[in-house]
Design goal:
Layout lengths: L6 E2 L11 E7 L4 H18 L3 H13 L4 E2 L2 H22 L5 E11 L13 E5 L8
Parallel strand pairs: 1-3
Antiparallel strand pairs: 2-4, 4-5
Length: 136
């Protein structure tokens, strides 16, 4: 009988590679909307005291579901921070946009790379529902 050798993934929560940056693509968003969204995500990472790289790496490993590569409970939390940052980025970027369904991509890329590099490159959708004022 063979048993799998489980190995914990080694991720440095503070490692921030030079030239790596967050990106956000969002339907109908202006540069100001995108900047507001990226800044909101950066605040999530700063509050959690973790680099976006570490959070994205944890989320990527979590998605792999490889039984030989195991995340610690803390690293699972880091993956959750990646998703929290994505949610904060989209909510902040959408704050001035009209209601409706929006397609978005929150990721990371290198300064000189033409395409996002994060394994979390599946486009998401969100529904922006704003209350409308009624005229009396």
């Amino acid at each position: 009988m063979t048993t799998l050798q489980q190995e914990f993934v080694n991720i440095d929560r503070h490692y921030d590679p030079p030239g790596l940056r967050l990106t956000l693509e969002l339907d109908a968003a202006t540069e100001q909307d995108i900047e507001r969204g990226i800044n909101a995500a950066k605040r999530v990472f700063a509050l959690a005291q973790i680099s976006s790289y570490a959070a994205a790496s944890a989320a990527d490993y979590q998605d792999l579901e490889d039984p030989e590569l195991v995340l610690t409970s803390e690293q699972h939390e880091w993956a959750g921070i990646w998703w929290e940052a994505q949610e904060a980025a989209v909510a902040a970027a959408c704050s001035d946009l009209p209601a409706g369904e929006k397609t978005f991509l929150f990721s990371q890329t290198w300064d000189d790379a033409p395409e996002p590099i994060s394994g979390n490159c599946i486009r998401g959708t969100t529904w922006l529902d704003k209350e409308t004022e009624t005229q009396e």
